[in-house]
C-alpha cells in the first residue's frame, strides 16, 4: 500500500527532515510512527498525502508515485485518504453533523446517501447522539473523535493521523487509540504518528521509529 524507496526530504534553506528512508506498509496494517519532536514524522505523513514532495527517492501509494502527481490529480488521490492532521481544523460555525457532511458535499454526494454515511461515521466514533451539537460544546476527546469521523466518512482505505492524541489525558487518548484499532480490524491501513510511546503499547502494533530523519533500528 505504501512504499518509501530511499527518500530524502530537504526543506529550504537546507534542513534535512528525512534522510534515506525506505520501508513498506502492507494493506490493512496498523503502524505507529514514533520519534522525538522534529524527527520527521509529520514530514513523512505529508509525503504520503503529497502535501510535500520528496527531494529525491520515491513514495508509492497503491503503486502510484504520489510525489510525481500533477497538481490537478491531487484532490482525486486524497479522496482515498483519511487525514487527521493538526492544521485541518474543525469548522466551529457548523454542527457536528455539518462538519462530517462537508467532504461529501464537496464530492457531490446525493444528500440522502450522504446523510446516511455521516451518521454511520458518527456512530463509529460514538458521537451519533451529539450530531446537532456545535463543536465548541464538545470535549477535547470528542473533538478529536469528530475529526476522525470527518476523515473516514469517504471510507478511505488508508488513514493518516498526526499526533491525534496531543493534549488529551491518557484515558481519552486510549479511547482514540481504540477507534483506530477498530478501523484496522475492518481492513483499513492506519499510520499514526505519535510522540506518546505508551499509546497502543498493549495492542503491540508494528512501530517505525525515526531519529533525526533516519529510520532507527
Ligand atoms: N515547511 C518546513 N520548512 C522548513 N523546515 C521544516 C518544515 N517543516 C518541517 N521542517 C523541519 O523539518 C524537521 C522535521 O520536522 P517534522 O515536523 O517532520 O518533525 P516531527 O517529528 O513531526 O516533529 P513534531 O513531533 O514536533 O511535530 C524539523 O527540523 C522541522 O523544523
Automatic annotation (TrEMBL):
Provide a Gene Ontology MF annotation, just one.
ATP hydrolysis activity
Query: Which GO BP terms, alphabetically?
Result: amino acid transport
Residues covered by the ABC transporter domain = 2-217
Give a yes or no for keyword ATP-binding in this entry. yes
Q: Which UniProt keyword terms apply here? A: Amino-acid transport, ATP-binding, Cell membrane, Membrane, Nucleotide-binding, Translocase, Transport
What are the annotated GO cellular component locations?
plasma membrane
Name the InterPro entries on file: AAA+_ATPase, ABC_transporter-like_ATP-bd, ABC_transporter-like_CS, ABC_transpr_LolD-like, P-loop_NTPase
Entry similarity comment: Belongs to the ABC transporter superfamily.
Q: What is the recorded function of this protein according to its Swiss-Prot or TrEMBL entry? A: Part of the ABC transporter FtsEX involved in cellular division. Important for assembly or stability of the septal ring.
Q: Know the name of this protein?
A: Cell division ATP-binding protein FtsE
Source organism of this protein record: Georgfuchsia toluolica
Amino acid at each position: 500500500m505504501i512504499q518509501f524507496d530511499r527518500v530524502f526530504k530537504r526543506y529550504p534553506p537546507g534542513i534535512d527532515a528525512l534522510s534515506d528512508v525506505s520501508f513498506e506498509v502492507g494493506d490493512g496494517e496498523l503502524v505507529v510512527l514514533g520519534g522525538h519532536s522534529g524527527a520527521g514524522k509529520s514530514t513523512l505523513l505529508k509525503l504520503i498525502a503529497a502535501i510535500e514532495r520528496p527531494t529525491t527517492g520515491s513514495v508509492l501509494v497503491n503503486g502510484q508515485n504520489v510525489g510525481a502527481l500533477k497538481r490537478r490529480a491531487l484532490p482525486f488521490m486524497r479522496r482515498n485518504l483519511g487525514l487527521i492532521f493538526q492544521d485541518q481544523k474543525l469548522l466551529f460555525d457548523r454542527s457536528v453533523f455539518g462538519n462530517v457532511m462537508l467532504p461529501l458535499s464537496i464530492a457531490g454526494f446525493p444528500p440522502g446517501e450522504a446523510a446516511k454515511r455521516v451518521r454511520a461515521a458518527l456512530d463509529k466514533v460514538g458521537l451519533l447522539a451529539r450530531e446537532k451539537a456545535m463543536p465548541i460544546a464538545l470535549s477535547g476527546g470528542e473533538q478529536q473523535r469528530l475529526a476522525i469521523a470527518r476523515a473516514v466518512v469517504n471510507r478511505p482505505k488508508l488513514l493518516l493521523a498526526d499526533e491525534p492524541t496531543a493534549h488529551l489525558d491518557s484515558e481519552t487518548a486510549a479511547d482514540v487509540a481504540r477507534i483506530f484499532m477498530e478501523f484496522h480490524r475492518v481492513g483499513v491501513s492506519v499510520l499514526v504518528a505519535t510522540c506518546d510511546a505508551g499509546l497502543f503499547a498493549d495492542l503491540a502494533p508494528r512501530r517505525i521509529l525515526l531519529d533525526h530523519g533516519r529510520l532507527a533500528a
